[in-house]
From TrEMBL:
Its EC number is 1.8.3.1. GO terms for molecular function: heme binding; molybdenum ion binding; molybdopterin cofactor binding; sulfite oxidase activity. GO terms for biological process: sulfur compound metabolic process. Keywords: Membrane, Metal-binding, Molybdenum, Oxidoreductase, Transmembrane, Transmembrane helix. PANTHER family: SULFITE OXIDASE, MITOCHONDRIAL, SULFITE REDUCTASE. Its cofactor is Mo-molybdopterin. It comes from Populus tomentosa (Chinese white poplar). The gene is SOX. This is Sulfite oxidase. The keyword Chaperone does not apply. It holds the Pfam family Mo-co_dimer. Residues 262-390 form the Moybdenum cofactor oxidoreductase dimerisation domain. GO terms for cellular component: mitochondrion. The keyword Oxidoreductase applies. The chain crosses the membrane at residues 12-30.
């Protein structure tokens, strides 16, 4: 069945009508994010509120008995793995935050035009992913744990999706990670079949998806079709011609894609979700809450909130699981997951409220959008600012 790798067991369907709760950004492909306040109403994001980022129509796999993932490339024994093979491996739950690299792109595009789907602050979500570790899956084809190069020179693991997209000229979506990360059990890369204790649904990658914790969402390939062990990183569009961070001087006329590496870890990020861009309030106390997250398994050491546009700051309290004190990089903290924060401040008059986070490597968010503007509009991590307008009438 080796030839069968990319044969199409999917029929393509447009997503049904948009879910009422969502802002729909583009209906085709289907991209959606929840309202800010709903996003932080729980530590684990309910499936229905999890952002959806797709590059093509959502595939439907309806013959689960025949569905398999072919592992091939620079290995001795290519093999087709069926659901039962994956489910026979030890099952792990990994709590991990996935974030689209374009999160918060809307505001970035106010500075200069960028290409991409416009997002508010909610192209992020925290899930409990259940499945087999990729390191165990690769052992089934003879690649041992902690391998960085196979005998035949494989150094990267490419995930190929069932879904097809126009950026690949109708070919499948694909992305890769280094073999050393894929075979490291501590990196917690999963071949997942569950989300929040339920079977994955179609929107989130049924029947199998990859979850690469701490890395931009684009590498967590959904609707997994095959896995290629390759010598160089994936040549796919979304690895080579997208999701790279360029300096502000690079524009569409002088860009040379091969001068930058594909973005992997996401940088330290935070956003206020209890307030909209402009919110009318009564004078007095205002609750400021939201999320903070960093990539690469780094924890959040501090979340600072300012009510005077960034001149002075107070520290917000941080939490993950109820009743468990959050300490960054502690054994009892979820290292791949966001932290929620919360602080009540005084806002006697109209002002700008700002948040920034510091991660456990002391990385801090940049103050201005100009410092990180890039033509693809990815990784907008500048201080998140919202306005409160204090009024005295009924609002
Ligand atoms: C990023 O987005 C926020 C709103 O989400 C905005 O306030 C900020 O200016 C933007 N910064 C960049 C770098 O685009
Ligand atoms: C994984 O998480 C789900 C839902 O959170 C839970 O029902 C299940 O018992 C957990 N399984 C393991 C192996 O911890
Ligand atoms: C683009 O960058 C690569 C790597 O630095 C270089 O080899 C190549 O010549 C450059 N291409 C152009 C058109 O400048």
């Amino acid at each position: 069945m080796l030839w069968a790798c990319c044969y199409c067991i999917a029929e393509f369907l447009l997503h049904p009508v948009m879910v009422f709760l969502y802002f729909t950004l583009l209906q085709y492909p289907f991209n959606a994010e929840p309202p800010r306040s709903a996003l932080i109403s729980s530590y684990v994001t309910p499936v229905d509120l999890f952002y959806k980022r797709n590059h093509g129509p959502i595939p439907v796999v309806d013959d689960i008995e025949r569905y398999s993932v072919l592992i091939r490339g620079l290995i001795d024994n290519p093999r087709d793995l069926f659901m039962r093979d994956i489910k026979m491996l030890p099952k792990y739950n990994v709590t991990a935050t996935l974030q689209c690299a374009g999160n918060r792109r809307t505001a970035m595009s106010k500075v200069k035009t960028v290409k991409g789907v416009g997002w508010d602050v909610s192209a992020i979500g925290n899930g409990v992913w259940g499945g087999a570790k990729l390191a165990d899956v690769l052992e089934l084809v003879g690649i041992s744990k902690l391998t960085s190069t196979t005998k035949s020179g494989g150094k990267h693991v490419e995930f190929v999706s069932i879904d097809k997209c126009k950026e690949e000229n109708g070919g499948p979506y694909k992305a890769s990670i280094p073999l050393s990360q894929a075979t490291n059990p501590e990196a917690d890369v999963l071949v997942a079949y569950e989300m929040n204790g339920e079977p994955l649904n179609r929107d989130h990658g049924y029947p199998l998806r990859v979850v690469v914790p701490g890395v931009i969402g684009a590498r967590s390939v959904k609707w997994l079709d095959c896995i290629n062990i390759i010598a160089e990183e994936s040549q796919g569009f979304f690895m080579q011609k997208d999701y790279k961070m360029f300096p502000p001087s690079v524009n569409w006329d002088n860009i040379n894609w091969s001068t930058r590496r594909p973005q992997m870890d996401f940088p330290v990020q935070s956003a206020i979700c209890s307030l909209e861009d402009v919110t009318a309030i009564k004078p007095g106390k205002v609750k400021v809450s939201g999320y903070a997250a960093s990539g690469g398994g780094r924890g959040i050491d501090r979340v600072d909130v300012s009510v005077d546009g960034g001149k002075t700051w107070v520290e917000a309290s941080r939490y993950q699981k109820p009743g468990v004190q959050y300490i960054s990089d502690d054994m009892n903290s979820d290292k791949w997951a966001w932290v929620l924060f919360d602080v009540t401040v005084d806002a006697p008059q109209s002002t700008e409220i700002v948040v920034k986070a510091v991660d456990s490597a002391a990385n801090v968010q940049p103050e201005n959008v100009q410092e990180i503007w890039n033509l693809r509009g990815i990784l907008n991590t500048s201080w998140h600012r919202v306005q409160v307008r204090v009024g005295h009438s009924n609002m």
